[in-house]
Amino acid sequence: MGKIDRPAWRRFFGALFALSLALFAALSATSLRLQGQTRMAWWTSIFSLVLTGYVALKIVPPLARRTVLERWSLKVDYRLTREGILYLGVIGVIILAALNTGNNLLFMILASLLAGILISGIVSKIVLSGVELSFVLPEHVFAEMPVICQFALKNFKRIFPTYSVTIGSREEKKEKKKKRGENPTAAPRRILNQPVYVPYVPRQARVAQELEINFPRRGRYTQDGFQVSTRFPFGFLEKSCEIPLSQEVLVYPNVQPTEEFYEILPLISGEMESSLKGQGHDLYSIRDYQESDSARHVDWKVSARVDALQVREFTREDERRVVLAFDNRLPAAGEKQREKFEKAVTFCACLAWHFFENNAQMQAMMDDWETPMAPAGEVVYPMLEKLAVVEPNASEAGLDKDADLLARLASQRRGFNIIFTAQPRGSVPTSLWGTSYLIFIDAL
């Protein structure tokens, strides 16, 4: 705790005494004028004015320089509320009545009402000053899935508590002005879209409050700062100040199963089963031939010995090796194509999460990015991060051979391919049809 600044306190109490003396001189001047002592009243008024000016010019500035000004340099915006408009209307009526009647009681009431506005401004500035805001979000956030975040408001003031504050986004005013004629898709993605109310924060204390937030779309959400506002104590004015606090969150696509997921997953599983069955290296068993078996797995020696077709079954060690590839080239860029592209992104995220839950070996690939074949737990979040920000590219951009995803997949066998693409069926390399399951974006 800092030392007491005794000279500053002496100046402060000296200024209070001088102002009290000036007020007494002004009241005395009024009394002398009513008694007809005009000359004495004039000199008394001059003394009161000179004393007030001396305090304003000689005592107040040194006191201000000794004060921790940064705590009071808070920029506060004011907005008149409905109650405030009604209050000013009452003040206007009393002003007219006081001027027309000359009634001292009306002037006293008017002074009290104006003092209420002054007190409201001072108290609200005290409430808003000396506060610090912190904001915590979970590490992984998914679209359309509610998450719990935590707001914490800390009050550094040593004497005064903080009452009745509302935390919101500071861009709200600017967006209201630009709301008309603005493309809604071009609006900035804010983290906080609803106000948070904090009724009371004790002095030198911290109050935390949890809030449920639901992000409607994938992508990057940013928040440059927050706006803290209050109507305390009377509600005539809404006072607000900005607290700079940069926040950014990457929202992954929704991984909850969709209708397309439930429809296509059995087909994918069947294709994987038929493609990977028998491609291991270790003999598992020899059994009777079935109509669905391939002729290349027939063991002719054993078949001749038992006089019946027998097939060899191998361990299916590659069954869970999956290459999940997303081709973001989109021939057209219309609204319907964009909607299908978003469905494909969500579907791809669902599949990545499905293989993660099944402990598969997975590799993720895009046009200019890929991961090594690894356990899905090591691949799923980098894949979701890329899917969160992926945007469609025009296929006419002319990708070279090394950047062509389909050509890279056809050049070597890495596992069973699940490919999302919007390219025409005729452009898919022939070698991919037997080792891949292709999901065409325009068919979603």
CATH topology of the largest domain: Immunoglobulin-like
Q: Separation of termini? A: 67 Å
Overall shape: it is rod-shaped
Second-tier CATH architecture of the largest domain? Sandwich
Please name the fourth-level CATH homologous superfamily of the largest domain. Immunoglobulins
Strand tally: 19
The oligomeric state is: single chain
List the secondary-structure elements in sequence, H or E. HHEHHEEEEHEEEEHEHEEEHEEEHEHEHE
Number of helical segments with 4 or more residues: 11
| The level-1 CATH class of the largest domain | Mainly Beta
The main β sheet shows up as: 6 strands, mixed
Strand content: 25-35%
Question: Would you mind describing this structure in some detail?
Answer:
This protein is α/β, with parallel strands linked by helices. Strand 18, helix 11 (430-433) and strand 19 form a beta-alpha-beta unit. Mean pLDDT is 78; it is low at 68-72, 175-187, 277-281, 315-319 and 397-402. The chain has helices spanning 6-34, 38-66, 82-101, 104-128, 172-177, 259-276, 300-306, 335-357, 376-389, 405-411, 430-433, and strands at residues 77-80, 131-136, 141-142, 147-155, 162-169, 196-201, 205-213, 219-230, 237-252, 283-288, 310-314, 321-326, 329-330, 361-366, 369-370, 374-375, 393-394, 416-421, 436-440. Strands 1, 3, 5, 6, 8 and 9 form a six-stranded mixed sheet that branches. Strands 12, 14, 15, 16, 18 and 19 form a six-stranded mixed sheet that branches. The chain is rod-shaped and about 140 Å long. It has four domains: 1-67; 75-252, Immunoglobulin-like (Sandwich); 259-279 and 318-443, Rossmann fold (3-Layer(aba) Sandwich); 281-315, no CATH class.
